[in-house]
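Standup notes, structure subgroup. Blocker cleared on the zinc ion input:
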Amino acid sequence: MEKRERILVPEPVLKENVWGGNRLVTEFHYKSEGSGYGECWGISAHPHGDCVIAEGEYAGETLSRLYREHRELFGNLKSPEFPLLVKIIDAQDKLSIQVHPDDAYAGTHEDGSLGKTECWYVMDCPEDAELVIGHKAKTREELADMVHQGRYEELVRRVPVKKGDFIQIEPGTIHAITAGLLILETQQSSDVTYRVYDYGRLVDGKPRPIHVEQSIQVANVPDESDKKALKHTQDYAANRLNQLVSCDFYKVWKLKVEGEFSLEQEEPFLLLSVIQGGGFLDGRNIKRGDHLILPAGYGRARFSGDMELILSTAVEK
Ligand code: ZN
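Run returned:
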């Protein structure tokens, strides 16, 4: 009974976006008055959307403060800021074609910010969906020429995706989420995006800022990451932790619970997002769209029900 209270429950933060839809409000239980929400920041301590702990001993505290003042809950990690951000993205319209810097570039050019490595789990998508991953320019000069001439359709690589696919996006990879996709994103806690192209869209009558020169500087050239970025997880076995990626910043797993499953929480912390179905975690009713944190030393976590989850933890170099 004591253990159940130690699950940390962050209150999600909804973000309005020009390309956002209404699924986060209609298909999930996220409370909101409006629409046009493109993102639900389910687990975040980023200053642009710092989740408040909803219940228990730390109710009312922001995740950033909890991380600063109770580092023992997070395995005494050295990172000065909570290192990860987990969000659900509902792209009613396509997102800009963009690229993120790595830690070194962001630290120098973006006021000490973290770079952004991110990964996507496709929760839902239209038939024949494609994602933009990588580009076809062979040299940086060719990349600059094609960008300056606006030859984006020729430039970018497109990869077909299905529900249940997983994609790792390294810094420097030109990428875009296309219309109709619902994605669970696990990423470094960073909000630094360089837009290469925004399809000429206007927001409040004005185009959003485009960062052509930064994009050309940080893009990987050549970039064939479309060939190795994608994993198909549809046939992964139930009732085991299936690792999706392990990189310098995070490890991510997919877990499909059928009946009962338990695991020993031995990571610095474990982030959980229920992406399908529902059930129980140590007696707590959980369902699609719930985001939870199992702190350090949590011990055995017992799941039951019929559900799919994405789990992650931070890695320190
Ligand atoms: Zn991105």
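Discussed briefly. The pocket of zinc ion is lined by residues 98, 100, 118, 175 (CB under 6 Å).
Next: hand off to the docking folks.
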